Amino acid sequence: MKFHVALSPDAYLQLDDVVSTRRQIPGYGEVVTSGVVTEVVARHEGAAFGSDVFLIADGILPATVQEIAEVTTTRVEPECYVPPRPGAVAIRAAGADRDAALYFDKMDARIPAGIGRDGEPIYLNLEFLDGTRGAHVSISGISGVATKTSFALFLLHSLFTSGALGGRAVNAKALIFSVKGEDLLFVDQPNTRLDETLRAAYARLGLPARPFASAGFYAPPLPGDTTGRPHVTGRTSGVTAFWWTLAEFCQRELLPYVFADVEDEKNQYTIVVHQVTSRLRHEAQAAGNDGAVAIDETTIRTWAEMIEFISQKVTDEGTRAHWAGPAVGMGTVNAFVRRLRSSQRPLGPLLRGDLSTVTDRPVTHSIDTSRQQVTVVDLHNLPERAQRFVVGVVLAAETDRKEQAGPGGLLFTMIDELNKYAPREGSSPIKDVLLDIAERGRSLGIILIGAQQTASEVERRIVSNSSIKIVGRLDPAEAGRPEYGFLPTSQRQRATLAKPGTMFVSQPEIPVPLAVEFPFPAWATRLSEVADPTFTTGTSPADSNAGGAARPDPFSKLPQTQSDSWFDDPDDGAIDEPPF
């Protein structure tokens, strides 16, 4: 499974080069053994001690410089596993020989993943991405250096524009959760750094150097705003605000996602959560067209009012058995109420019954992936608890939709910081949804593209079910974890030094991960990179909605007047009480 190649003085091999050698076997004919260089060593033959190098350099001690390359076998064709003969000629594989060594010739549909060290394209087998033989992608690396998000977007661009999907590209969608600034709100705009050199890099991979042609953008509503404007600052149009009405919250049984921390499942108050969820589902009635609900002749229009209503029902002696359960003690109820009250601030802007959804210009407040190829959901302005709520609810809704629609379309779901939503220890509603996608998502057409800094902190079943594993720059301690056992020793060491844009890609057919470099994004990754900074509209069809993006109130950040009693000393030393 490994062999070594001696290099003549006028030849060289570098890491990741593809090498092949041939041998005649009676009864089989010519057997070709191919592999990838995983180590190269140069040494003096004839030197016994390290200090002999000085004597050799002065011509006193005779010695010969010799380079030896270690080659890890990737393919033996035909499958007659005999070692190459010593003294046989080995060549650097190119063209059809290189394609055969890396199984590219066996890929009916292949996706460009980047450029190899030899300057030639590296491909992924689409069958391990679209669910035919496998699915899901795991991308690991240090934040800000490993370029995980950039590579994931490049992979989506390659999927949609390479032609490998064929007719299925029409029904192939991407759902992207953005948690780091507004960088992904400009993927439909050309990058100012797009020059001829960058175009040539994309052309070498057979891809067009252009932004995503069909993209829709969603952001949470501006806190304290009653018109449903999205909370964004960089992009002034083309963004739709999303939220859930209280009527939807009750009917779709979304309360468990409010308690989405992994520690929540370890507590007894989860019994109360499910009991209250059932009561809301059966007793809440829609009140008007703004999403409000009526329960026991009480109209509820805000999340704060819903919290107060539920708290009263589960603590009142007359209704506690009906709403919290007949055998639940007050200690458990109080724990539930404390946790529920702490959700008022993070979830208040997302759970609304005070925004009308029936107007002269209908407002679309739900995240809809069917209207464009790429859907970006911006979460960076939300607290972490609200981010978990959105991810869990949206993924659960998409899973239900795919189950009802049946096979036929593909939904590539990209989630950054996956260890936050599916940690190794504990359980939560979101983790259950992600596990469901990882284990049977490919049969539904839902493909998970998960990015995380540390794969060792992500649920094992999610990582193990990922057919494609990709590693960028790694922390040295993380590189030693067993989750990276698929990397040879030399690649583990190189991963701690990898520069941005270099990734190590592992796929089932090729025993050795391949090092690739992918081109700089052809789409803008921040407002300063937009080719036309004066653009006023995006390609999102949501522009026709009244929820189009608008800047926050310019007067909201003006300093307070001197007449305010607390102007000189804004900190009065008081301890905030809920709801903070």
TrEMBL record:
Acidic residues composition-biased segments: 566-580
SUPFAM superfamilies listed in its UniProt record: P-loop containing nucleoside triphosphate hydrolases
InterPro entries in UniProt: P-loop_NTPase, T4SS_component
Regions crossing the membrane: none
Renumbered residue ranges of the record's region Disordered: 534-580
Skewed-composition ranges (Polar residues): 534-543
Protein name, as recorded: ATPase
